Task: structure prediction
Amino acid sequence: MKIERPRGTRDFLPDEMEKRRTIEKIMRRIAESYGYREILTPTFEHLELFTIKSGEGIIEEIYAFKDKGGRDLALRPELTAPVIRMFVNECVGMPKPLRFYYFANCFRYERPQKGRYREFWQFGVELIGSSSPLADAEVVSLAYRIMDELKIKFDLHVGHVGLLRHLLRDLDENVASKIMRLIDKKDVEGLEKYLDEVGVSSDLRDSIFSLVELVGDRDVIGSAKEIIPDFDFGHIEKLCDVLDALDVKYKLDFGIARGLDYYTGVVFEAYAKEGLGAQNQICGGGSYRLAHLFGGEDTPATGFALGFDRIAEICEVELERKKKVVVVSFRGLEGEAFKIANTLRDKAVVVTDVMERNIKKQLSYANDINADLAVIVGERELKEGKVAVKDLRSGEQKAVSLNELLDLI
Result:
């Protein structure tokens, strides 16, 4: 019986994995150049970790289960909550700010579609311990640099949920949260209907729609000040100063709500300009406070997560390539072939025959896997301290010493 892979998952063959590892290596290098260090949390956590943060409704969207001891667990649907749980448990005594990055798989039970899977990978960072606009600027610019260096065409939108929260401050908390979620989903029709249902005044209604429609360069701050004159825009202006100094290309977008209640200030999202259709968001992040929900002190943090799978789908990278060599041997000389292969592996990808095939079939296999060179180990050549080297591109063949072989590769 043929067993298919589970719905919403994928198999990655070698060519795809080489591409993904190259992209991952670039992301790691850039994050580490900013002083971020890698961490890793468990693949599954207590279910409560995610319901505290996102509410009971998330259970329908994730892989939740009971273990053999009856404990409620869940495969991680994202990494921010596990990282902050780890911070509260293990890191509160470490000097702040803390700079962490991660690369891991996550799981969500949702309808698979282009760019959206039930198992997916995230690359992200968390800067823990600072509420300064400088912390926000570092995290935004780091995300921007990664996407820019990967040569992705994208739009970066930066907002601040504090503006909407300030507008909605006199409403019931649950009502305000529902409004934020509708704004986050860009559900204008649903928002209009809900505002009617809860009896929001026409003035507040006008202010909400005027604010969420503000998108543009930093001049839109002036328009926002007219809508909310009693809000302190100093944090946003300082953030813009630093991003402008770094030549980060962005649009201010005060309609970004990032629906989850724990976001407190700056929020940002990046959208691919081509290749992904409607599912084109490739990055999301912002400043938040979660530690106090998990038993720690109220601690500010800023982070982002990159949708690695979507980025891998649209990103073109130049793969690092070593020469590929096949060591071909006559029967009885396999041990010598293995020894020669070992001497070459520091400089090249080296394959030896493990099928006990004849010379003709070994050379045919070398062509099948697109090898660059075939090193032919024969009894006569070995007595002279030499091997035959065949260039599989040109067909040229010559005898060389083992030292010359190393120089040739």
Q: What stands out?
A: The chain has two domains: 14-314, 324-408. The domain at 14-314 is CATH 3.30.930.10 (BirA Bifunctional Protein; domain 2). The first helix runs from residue 14 to 33. The two ends are 46 Å apart (CA to CA).
